[in-house]
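Worked problem 6 (solution included).
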Amino acid sequence: MAGGRGTRIFLIGLAGAGSFVVVVVTVWVLAEGRSATDLVTLLGFPVALASLLVGVAGIPAVWGTLRQVPDDAAAARAAAAVLARQVYEAEQREWLRLVGGDTERINLHFALLTEGQWRPAATTTTRGSLFSDGSSGVPDVVAFYRETRSARLAVTGSPGAGKTVLALEILLALIASRSETEPVPVRLSLAEWDTSAMGLEGYLVHHLVHALDWPPHIARRLVRHRMVLPVLDGLDEMDSLLSRDGRPVLDDHGNPCPDPNAPRARAALKFLNTYQDGLSVAPLILTCRGAHYDALSEADRLRTAARIQIAPVVHEHGLAYLARRSGRSAHWNALLQHLRTHPDSPVAHALTTPWRLNLVATTYHHGGSLGALLERTDAAGLDDYLLSRLIPAVTELDLTAHPPFTRRHRPRYPAGDVQRWLSTLAIHLASVRSGTASQLGGAARTDLVLHELWPLAGRRRVRAVDAVLSAVTVLLTLPLAWLTPCPALSASVIAIVAVSAGTVAALNTSPVPHRLYWGRLATQHGRADLTLGVTCGLTAGGGLSFFADTWLGIGFGLACGLVAGLVIGAIGEPVTAADPRQVRGGDLIYGLLSATAVGLSTASVGVLLLEPGTGLVCGAVGFVSGLVGLTAGVTARLVDGILPRLPMGLAAGSPATRRYLVFLLCSRNHLPFRLTAFLEWACGVGLLRRAGSAYQFRHREIQRWLALTSSRRSHT
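Solution. The predicted structure is:
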């Protein structure tokens, strides 16, 4: 049921049931010849219970009034300011890692393409560069974008040409100079977009909620008021590559050919072309490989957009970059001399993208064979050779940068283990969507989200172990049953709760973590939610006071309400950038607090209605069952249909963190147990990067190469 209609049906049904009870009790009292005092006494309990239920049913309306925003647009602008700080903090860190973490930058140049573009955007210039050098007179990419009408940009280029870096430069510059009414650019991976399940607005909300940890109602407000500027990265990564007999088809330059059908990319472009801001098209930025974009028909491409093509790196600029990165080492002389004297060689032609230049600089830092490099006569062969040297090179560089006497607590990983673990993750990304690890053409996902990795260790296996551990955790309270007057009955109840907890854990296929922001309690919405929690607790305490001491019931209710208010009040817009480690830790704290609230409430019922020993057992069982998420699976289904707006903070637990720990136990032979530490190390050495609360491979070519190499090795 939804909204007011569901509440009205609930209240009508409650009134009808109450009237029926009153009539039945009255007839029974009159038939037995009892007095009016007996009638009042017998009717006291159902009337009090009905009053309590009516009061609880009215809580969502009170909560909605407390949270009511006078100006929805102003609230969206305020939330956008917080989002801008969050995105800038995260993307600036990742930009430094993406460009190599050094000061040696390669200036990219691009040109405006109008041929084959339907309704191109209006621009004042046809050329530009990544950053202005002060001598060429061409504008930088940020100035080019600001002068483009209607603020829609399609960035294309060859693999590794620097499309993502260009988009990040625009993103950071727009945030640094934005006014309060301008949208916040947010980078999204198009490979993660399920176009069959949601449109662009739905995907933006989904990304804000799941990647950046925003509450759904605030995320919808930001998207509704167009306070998010989508920076959509990787249109070419949405569909599989063109293949024959299971092998990718390569073009004359050794690059994989795109599939001209590209159903997911075409569906995405349909959503983009209808994305409006009032009567005008909404601004956005799109990146795609040039060959993939050209393979689409003119009618399928992005309309009213300026398409720019990133030019290959000039030979002299690439040579100067390698000379600066080499540190004038002797083993570089042969390579640099070859590039100077043979500018038309296959290797020189291939080293015209920032990606390959950075790859050569990294893999040849400690030495390399010029002959082995020159044996590669095409770009695909060169990429395969360089990528095979990448992981040994970065592990060696890490050891050199952190000698033993400064590496006390820094993990040390052998190159073979690093490649095996990363290959496992790459295979998982390829098999999530396609359903099999044999289809590695290019439609793989890109985001490694910690609480979503558990299917990698086997869905049935992880869910079975999760169910057993959840049930065993509840059974740990079994010795407390002998503290009650009826040990056998108490033990039976605990066993039933244990079986229920295991069943709920096994049926949970999508555990979602929660994160708490304590600073939100100082805001208006945080105080309103805290008031809601205290109100719920006092209402429950008032109900319990009908059966026992009034002050004792109110005291228990207030304690439960304070814990509930803290949990509910600290859930809201994030105050810092989403971090995978903080998300997991926040989910654990959330689970402990919500389980405490469940334990206090069940203990109060046991103490007030039964006796102290039974109350202790009820509290312990309630705490453990709340921690393993039992109440999340039961209460949410019972209450959601009647009170759809009531926050279920008290019944959440931390099933996402528990499922992640179970996954680590089940994948000891495939991944390191301290997986987060390894992923952070991989980000530090440049193999991975962070994207909100997820990890991604630094470049798509690393992910594809690892998956394909592992697949070939397994087949051999």
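Discussion: The chain is about 55% helix and 5% strand.
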